[in-house]
Amino acid sequence: MQTDTNLQDQLPERVKKLNLTGLKPKQLQMLIGIDKYQGSVLAAAEKSGIHRATHYRWLQTDANYKTAFTALTTVTHEWDDARILKLYKENELKEAMFLLSIRGKHRGYRLTDKQPTTKT
Fold first, then answer.
1. Is the separation of the CB atoms in 32 and 11 below 8 Å?
2. 4, 23, 65, 68: which is deepest, by most CB within 10 A?
3. Is residue 67 part of a domain?
């Protein structure tokens, strides 16, 4: 099993510079997974050997974990924005709508029954 120091060394710089203390090894593994899998809680949880509900409980009960998670997902949201814009410019509206439906929830986006119209 990896030590806490080894796990902390694997964290991205934007999380390391927050100088968060008290994160448990499983939390560190989850954060590393969140970064590796571009914000996918399911993939990170499976790789870390925890249930997704544990991750969501940590978000509610551990301020340091929530701060680290927010630092990681902020960058992921920026990547999503760029991908969505690229799809829109390429007139790939169905793909853009799908990406928004799964990755735009943090901004309140909800998929409706309306079909997208194509650009002219």
1. yes
2. 68
3. yes
**pLDDT tens across the length of the chain (120 residues):** 566 668 877 776 767 777 777 889 899 899 888 888 877 889 999 999 999 999 999 999 999 999 888 888 775 556 667 777 787 788 877 777 776 776 666 666 666 655 555 555
List C-alpha distances in Å: 71 to 105, 110, 120. Answer: 17, 24, 39
Range of the domain at 31: 4-107
Residue burial 63-94, b: 16+ Cβ < 10 Å; e: rest: eebeebbebbbeebeeebeeebeebbeeeeee
